[in-house]
């Protein structure tokens, strides 16, 4: 078999907000002769910038990231860099997250508690055009409740759940405070919650946030 050269190695951008985890993942992947980590990112926006700069074959990203979630990054890449395949690597073994990841265009969904060798294998399989999803989680996803939230309701509820005020959310998303409150009221009603904090808790527990 011919040796793998730098020109045909799978080029990967890693996105993870925990520095130690990011370093460990990079070290693991760089042990593989056919994989090259071309950039690391600690936020969602950094991940987008790295993809634009290095045009990797695969992006491996966590879901919960500062500035933009991994799912928001995957959605953005569908338009800006459709050739880059996304693998979600997360602790969230929830069908709702998996369904949202697939809707966002992700080609892989792996859990962090799986053996480390599975990550490199997933990168190879996704790069070759396959989809890689934990079989048990995929089965659960088919039977999971449908997510009732709209994208805008999810954006606002996520920020409210993080403790931001209606005014802060309105300023960040360039909406009026009244509009933000209306979206929150809709989300609270859909989820049968008592308030915005309870609504965020329910949505997160189902993988909708």
Question: What's the arrangement of secondary structure elements?
Answer:
Layout: E1 10-15, H1 19-30, E2 35-41, H2 44-54, E3 58-61, H3 70-80, E4 85-90, H4 95-103, E5 108-111, H5 117-127, E6 132-133, H6 135-142, H7 151-161, H8 166-173, H9 177-191, H10 196-205
Parallel strand pairs: 1-2, 1-3, 3-4, 4-5, 5-6
Helix pairs in contact: 2-3, 4-6, 7-9, 7-10, 8-9, 9-10
Which characteristics define this entry?
alpha/beta; Arc Repressor Mutant, subunit A; 6-stranded parallel sheet; 10 helices; 51% helix; Tscrpt_reg_LuxR_C
Question: Brief description of this entry?
Answer:
This protein is of the alpha/beta class and 209 residues long. The chain has helices at 19-30, 44-54, 70-80, 95-103, 117-127, 135-142, 151-161, 166-173, 177-191, 196-205, and strands spanning 10-15, 35-41, 58-61, 85-90, 108-111, 132-133.
Please provide a written account of the structure.
- With 209 residues, the chain is α/β, with parallel strands linked by helices.
- It has 2 domains: 6-142, Rossmann fold (3-Layer(aba) Sandwich); 151-205, Winged helix-like DNA-binding domain superfamily/Winged helix DNA-binding domain (Arc Repressor Mutant, subunit A), CATH 1.10.10.10.
- 51% of the residues lie in helices and 14% in strands.
- It contains 10 helices and 6 strands; from the N terminus they run βαβαβαβαβαβααααα.
- The chain has helices spanning 19-30, 44-54, 70-80, 95-103, 117-127, 135-142, 151-161, 166-173, 177-191, 196-205; strands spanning 10-15, 35-41, 58-61, 85-90, 108-111, 132-133.
- The protein is elongated, with a radius of gyration of 18 Å.
- The protein starts with 9 loop residues before the first strand and ends with a helix.
- It holds the Pfam family Response_reg.
């Amino acid at each position: 078999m011919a040796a793998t050269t730098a020109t045909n190695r799978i080029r990967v951008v890693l996105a993870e907000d925990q520095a130690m985890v990011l370093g460990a993942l990079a070290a693991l992947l760089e042990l593989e002769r056919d994989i090259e980590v071309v950039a690391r990112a600690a936020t969602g926006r950094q991940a987008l910038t790295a993809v634009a700069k290095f045009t990797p074959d695969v992006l491996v990203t966590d879901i919960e990231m500062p500035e933009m979630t991994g799912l928001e990054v995957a959605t953005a890449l569908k338009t800006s860099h459709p050739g880059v395949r996304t693998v979600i690597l997360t602790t969230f073994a929830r069908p709702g997250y998996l369904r949202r990841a697939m809707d966002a265009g992700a080609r892989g969904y792996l859990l962090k508690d799986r053996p480390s060798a599975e990550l490199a294998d997933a990168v190879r399989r996704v790069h070759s055009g396959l989809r890689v999803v934990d079989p048990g989680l995929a089965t659960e996803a088919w039977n999971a409740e449908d997510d009732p939230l709209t994208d805008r309701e999810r954006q606002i509820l996520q920020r409210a759940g993080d403790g931001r005020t209606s005014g802060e959310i309105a300023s960040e998303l360039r909406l009026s405070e009244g509009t933000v409150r209306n979206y929150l009221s809709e989300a609270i009603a859909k989820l049968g919650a008592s308030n915005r904090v309870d609504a965020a808790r329910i949505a997160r527990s189902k993988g909708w946030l």
